[in-house]
TrEMBL record, chain A:
Keywords: Mitochondrion, Ribonucleoprotein, Ribosomal protein. Coiled coil: none annotated. It is found in: Mitochondrion. Belongs to the mitochondrion-specific ribosomal protein mS33 family. This is Small ribosomal subunit protein mS33. Its main location: mitochondrion. It comes from Ganoderma sinense ZZ0214-1. Residues 95-106 have a biased composition (Basic and acidic residues). The keyword Transferase does not apply.
TrEMBL record, chain B:
It comes from Ganoderma sinense ZZ0214-1. GO terms for molecular function: structural constituent of ribosome. GO terms for cellular component: mitochondrial small ribosomal subunit. The lineage of its organism: Eukaryota, Fungi, Dikarya, Basidiomycota, Agaricomycotina. Belongs to the universal ribosomal protein uS14 family. This is Uncharacterized protein. Keywords: Ribonucleoprotein, Ribosomal protein.
């Protein structure tokens, strides 16, 4: 059997690409096409966690009809109670010198 | 109420979704060997300016019930213990406890 000339093989692959509508790339140069060809993953990524109906979301949707957010109410009440007993959040440092980070032992 | 790690993951998911097309375009230019190196380099620099929460690798599938990050059975999106609880409560269609 006679060997086929390389130029004939190249012509064959070019014709094949034309027929099947693929890019003719005999030297396998990286064209970055795979980044355009791949499907977008973002839309399915957002839908991973099932949507949960929370009180603020319900109140946002409902318009005039509101329901009391008891957990938030309790949390704010607890914060007030802590502040009253002097156990609240420390004041924000105005300068690096006031910062507690400096005085902390290493 | 989702815990803070789930919220961070959600932030990453929305960031990825918002920036995906632009990132893909830059990736295409940066990885395309037929373009001049200078252009590719500029595209790579642009890619580096994207924040942490725009990369798809930042996104992690966490347990949809508890927010746990490890031991997730991906088919159900649940951590292994939540999977067991739900399976025993017959809340997962087609899942039964093995017995022979």
């Amino acid at each position: 059997m006679a060997a086929v000339a390389p130029s004939r093989l190249a012509a064959l692959s070019r014709l094949r690409c034309e027929i099947f509508q693929t890019a003719y790339n005999p030297t396998s140069v990286r064209t970055g096409a795979k980044y355009l060809r791949a499907r977008l993953r973002g839309p399915s990524m957002i839908n991973y966690y099932p949507e949960q109906l929370t009180v603020p979301r319900f109140n946002h949707m409902a318009g005039n009809f509101k329901i009391q957010h008891w957990d938030e109410y309790q949390r704010l009440a607890d914060v007030e109670e802590k502040k009253r007993r002097g156990k609240g959040v420390p004041k924000k440092a105005k300068s690096p010198a006031e910062s507690r980070r400096q005085s902390r032992k290493r | 109420m989702p815990n803070v790690r789930v919220l961070r993951d959600l932030k990453a998911r929305h960031g990825v979704n918002a920036n995906e097309i632009l990132r893909r375009a830059y990736l295409y230019v940066a990885r395309n060997q037929t373009l001049p190196p200078q252009v590719r380099f500029q595209a790579q620099l642009q890619l580096n300016t994207f924040g942490r929460y725009t990369r798809p690798t930042t996104v992690k599938n966490r347990c949809t019930e508890t927010g746990k990050g490890r031991g997730i059975i991906s088919e159900f999106g649940l951590s292994r213990y939540q999977f067991r609880l739900k399976a025993l409560a017959n809340e997962l269609p087609g899942v039964r406890k093995a017995s022979w």
